[in-house]
Each structure stands twice: as structure tokens, then as C-alpha cells.
Write a structure and sequence with these properties.
alpha/beta, 10 strands, about 325 residues, homodimer, Rossmann fold, six-stranded mixed beta sheet, globular, 14 helices, 2 domains
Chain lengths: ~325, ~325
Amino acid sequence: MAGDVPVNIDMIRAAAHRLSGHARQTPLLSSPFLDEIAGRKVLVKAECLQHTGSFKFRGAWSALTALPAKAQGVLAFSSGNHAQGVAYAARCLGLPAVILMPADAPAIKIANTRGLGAEVVLYDRANEDRDALGAALAQARGLELIQPFDHPQVIAGQGTTGLEIAAQARAEGVTNAPVLVCCGGGGLSSGIALALEADAPDMQVRTVEPEGFDDVAQSLAKGAVVTLPLRTGLCDAIVTPAPGKLTWPILRRLCAPGLVVTDAQVLRAMALAYERLKLVLEPGGAVALAAALFQPEALEGDAVIVTASGGNVDRAVFMRALQAGGEDADR
Amino acid sequence: MAGDVPVNIDMIRAAAHRLSGHARQTPLLSSPFLDEIAGRKVLVKAECLQHTGSFKFRGAWSALTALPAKAQGVLAFSSGNHAQGVAYAARCLGLPAVILMPADAPAIKIANTRGLGAEVVLYDRANEDRDALGAALAQARGLELIQPFDHPQVIAGQGTTGLEIAAQARAEGVTNAPVLVCCGGGGLSSGIALALEADAPDMQVRTVEPEGFDDVAQSLAKGAVVTLPLRTGLCDAIVTPAPGKLTWPILRRLCAPGLVVTDAQVLRAMALAYERLKLVLEPGGAVALAAALFQPEALEGDAVIVTASGGNVDRAVFMRALQAGGEDADR
């Protein structure tokens, strides 16, 4: 991998070739009711319908089909979407996968990750060092660590979403529109930005983050990485403290100013995705739709494209969205 | 239209041609967790992602693009999925649509139908005769009545779902499997059965109905139409009293014995579609999935295909499903 250009369009196209027939080409959905709220055509790339319920399967498949020859299996840290993507891709490819999770992770997440065929190793968040434990495991068993976003082949895999967006939007007659992307560490945003640069030069990525977790928006505004305190929030899938080392230079070069939405807007967007698209979105997967619907003045043009990046949401949170979003969605 | 054969495969292929680029080719989804419950591969045709949230858009588009030249517009009775399909297809085609709905229909359904561009005419269920009112309206304004299932071009349109199932299942390596179809009047079931007869002769339709509303299953068992009392139930979209005049001869000729599921199974299937597929299903759209998951002994082979025919469900009912289905889905 050249140090200067760790990810490029050729790698994304190669990843698309490896993903073909394995990842789903998710549909680009729309609803006249959402268009009316937004005041423009809203096209929704439904990555919640991807295997394991989020786009993360793409990056995992891409990385696992480009492993160094010496790798005996793979290792990931996470209790979330990345872990599920890695676990299922590994199972499909017949590779051992070890997922390192805190012992106090929800039982359902541990069960789901095991259900997808991974070996789950639990650690004590208070008394053990995750990174040291992971490094020791990786060395002892010949495992390759798959980072959730700062990994060239993961970014390339997520970028295949952008190739599909370019082609599917063109089929709908849309070639010039902002592309709103739910943004944590920036793997999906940077991958899509690279894909659009090549295949849809009149489309530009706008990252979308939840209020209080807008490290990428602040970084883009300042032109330098801003790091925020690490905390948790409603949009748990995307509450990273800072853009990644590999993703930041791409985001900085290619993205327009970042957008920031409130938790209330996120819950309303989830209720509207339920009502009008029949999709289950998790909070972190609904931020882009929230921006398209409730911040139309921040956008230009007669169409907007949004990623709906995941749907792995606890039942209690989903019901809260249906209750909170009720008034708007029923109007 | 030949009297003996009101619908045939050529009409379905012609409808597919007219629908191309207008109806969505909905995805065929799956989840390893559902496969495990069912004990075989479960492929889910996600028609809840069709325009207006159900397969009904297909039949509506098919009928509206094959209107007699004299028609000045279209008329439909219904407060449900058929009305929404007709309203939206008419709006896209620039045709006037009148939907006759009872004045006591839920406000949200009236608003939605108007929101899709139709003129809603309300009538008093107790004191007015819907059919007479409709006939008078149709004659006065030159409107063509679009029946929800007993209409050759509607059946042909629904049959396009079967053409897609045959092709998409083949792409997944499945050519021999039962195809479970949510069944009310039989428009979708009969259309799919005709399509499979031509394109996937080793796939046979099994109709699925809710307990207490199994007029088609009883009719198939008896070899003659059985009519049940008209009532309402959880699966409101498919609680018809008898198979249709046009659909019955097709169902009788082509379908294997009908399946019947309980309301509890339907609610659990809705919760699992939420959890594992990220899809919103209405009760009537979840009966086929319920049969695949909870009546595996009634099926043969290592794969089953199910239609998930619609997702237009009141929030309260959906939350009830999430609560009722909790134990199973979280296991």
C-alpha cells in the first residue's frame, strides 16, 4: 500500500468485484411523503438491508478477501455493527473470527455475534487493557486485526456503496445532488466520497453527526482534526471522538461542510422511515435522513441522497422513536 | 379477453414490461437467524418495500396502463393497500382517481390516500349502498372501476412478483421450493402461481391465511368455493370471505394445500422481520413468514420462499408485535 494514497478508486472497484454476489446491492428507496417534508426528492440508500443489518458487512468482506497470506483468521474489537459484519463475512468465507467484547456488553449482542459464527472473547473493561489483550491474542493465534474504519480495504469496501449510489441515482435521473452520509470514524463517508469523485463528480458527500458528537463537522470547519471527549449517546453506532487517521485526509479533501442533527430529529426520522419506507433504522443510521428532512435549508438543489446505514436497534429505543415521532408521522 | 382464460403468462409478461422502471424490483432477503428457526433457507420477497408499502401498486399500475380508451379516470373502493396503490399509480400517470371510503375510516388512511393525489369520496356505511354509489359515480364521470383482485390486469400485475421470485431465487441457487403467499382474495397468489408455472415449474404456491379466515385453504381442501362470514381481524389486509371468481380457478388448478397461522405466530413473525430483516411488516403481510418459521413440518425441501406483501401497519399494532414477539426474537 503506498503511504500517500492508502485507498483509491481502483481499490474500490476491485472490492466491488470481490463483493459481487456476496454483499447485497441494496435498493435506493423514496416516498412522495418524504419528498414533501424535505421540499425536494429524497433518495434513501437502504444499507440497513445489507447482511447483518448494516453497511459494515461490505468493509468486512473486502478486508477478509484481501488478507495477507499468513493470516490464520481475523480479530475485531466491538460489540456493534462492525463485529457482526466481520463475524458473518468470516463465517461465509470459512475463516476463524475472534471478537473481543467487554464482559458487560448486552447479552443479546454477545449471542448475536456468536450466532453469526464468531468466537467471542470477553474482557473486563475496568481491569484489562483491550488493545494489549487483542495484540497478544493476535500474535498467539496468527489473527489479523480488522480495524472498523482505519483500514484501507475496509474503506474500499464501504466505498462500494458510493459506486451503487452513483449508478442507481443516475437510473432515477439524478446526477447532481448532495449525498448525506451517517458519519462515525468516517469509513463510509470517505469511501463514498472517493467513489463519487470518480463516478458522480457532481455529487458531494456531506457528513452527518449527532449533536455533541460532531468531531468531523468541527474538524472540517477548522481544517484540522478536532477530538471530542469519548461518551455514549443515542446514536451509539457513530459516537467516535475523532475522524480516523486514514479517513480524515479524504474527508478533508472531498467533503462539503458537515451537518449536525438533534436526537429529537433522529427519533422523528426513524418514525418516518418506519411509516413511509417500511424500514427499521437505528439512531446512528437515521442521522442522514434526519438532516435531509429537517434541515432542508442547509442543502441545495432539487434532490438529496441519504444513506440509511444500519438497523440494529434495541426494541425499547425503536418504540421510543415510534412514540416520539408519532405526531409528525401521523400528520 | 378470452372467457376461458382471463389471465395468462403472456399478460403477466406484458405487465412486467409496462411496470419496468416504474414498480420497484424488490429484493429477496434472508437471515441466518431465520434459517435456523425454520430449519431451512428462508428467502423473503420484500414487497413491503414496493411503492405505497405493498404489492398492490403492481396490479394498479398494470390495470391503469391497460385501461379502455373511453376511461376518463379510475375508481376504487377500499381504505387500504389497494386504494393507495391505485391512487399513486394514477397520480404518476396523470389520471384522475376517485377512492370511495367509509366516512368512519381512520383519519390517517383518508389523509394518506389524499396525500397520494386521489379524490376521496366518503360515504355513510350504515345508510348508503357502496356499490350503487360507485356505479353512479363511475357512470357520471366516465370512471373505470378497478377491482382489488377480480380484475385480469390486476392479477397480471401481481403476477410480476412471481417472475421476479423465479429469477431472483435462481440467482441464489434455488429452483425447487414452496412459495408461501399471503392470501386474501387471491390476486397475488394466483398471479404468482401463473408466473411460476411458466418460469419455475418446480416451485408451487402455498397460500397462507390467518386462523378463522381460511376460506381459500378450506376451498382448496374441498375443491369448491367455501364462503366464510365477513368479519375483521388482526390481519385486516387479507380478511376476505371467499376466493375471487377469477382467482379461484387458478388457485384450484395450481396451488398445493393452503396453510393457516395463528395471530400469535403472526406477531412473532413481525418481531423477527423487524429484528433480523429490518423490515416493517403488517400482520397480513407477515402470515407467509409466520408459516415458514413456525410450521416447518408442513413444508418439504431445504428452502422456502415467502412473500412479505405489505408494511402498512398502525403504530400501536406494530408495538404490540414487538412486545409480544420479544421473548422469541431475543433468544
